[in-house]
């Protein structure tokens, strides 16, 4: 029989069949095209391999396979629901605590900013008051307060009139 026919007979893919052949190191005959030819004895040996594989798979669970959950009685279900509700309550309380802490932090930061702004306003008022006091003392313009040396003034006037 051909590989495809034996795979169909056993209900497995050709790849699985060839993996079994390679793992068991079965000596199979090949036809003139180089394809394996299975005898009845080879098929019986592969059926035994298939039974062993199925028995191993039935006793062990594969990763990601779905398993049937055992029946749960009402008391156990109520206990689980109670624990879930308790955990949910704790999570909500924790979230509330975190939000409250963050609000307090923001409030503290806002108070610090308001204090800094108040200090800056006081300093600006103080500087404006000092500036007004200085202007009242000497009514001259700022440019006139510092007398330029005569030679600079003379050169400035000369440049204006071209003298």
From TrEMBL:
GO terms for cellular component: cytoplasm. Required for the formation of axial filaments and for anchoring the origin regions at the cell poles in sporulating cells, thus ensuring proper chromosome segregation in the prespore. Binds in a dispersed manner throughout the chromosome but preferentially to sites clustered in the origin portion of the chromosome, causing condensation of the chromosome and its remodeling into an elongated, anchored structure. One of its GO terms (biological process) is regulation of DNA-templated transcription. It comes from the Bacteria. InterPro entries: Chrosome_anchoring_RacA, DNA-bd_dom_put_sf, MerR-type_HTH_dom. The keyword Electron transport does not apply. GO terms for molecular function: double-stranded DNA binding. Belongs to the RacA family. The keyword Kinase does not apply. It is found in: Cytoplasm. Residues 3-23 bind DNA. This is Chromosome-anchoring protein RacA. Keywords: Cell cycle, Cell division, Chromosome partition, Coiled coil, Cytoplasm, DNA-binding, Sporulation. Residues 77-137 form a coiled coil. Gene3D superfamilies: 1.10.1660.10.
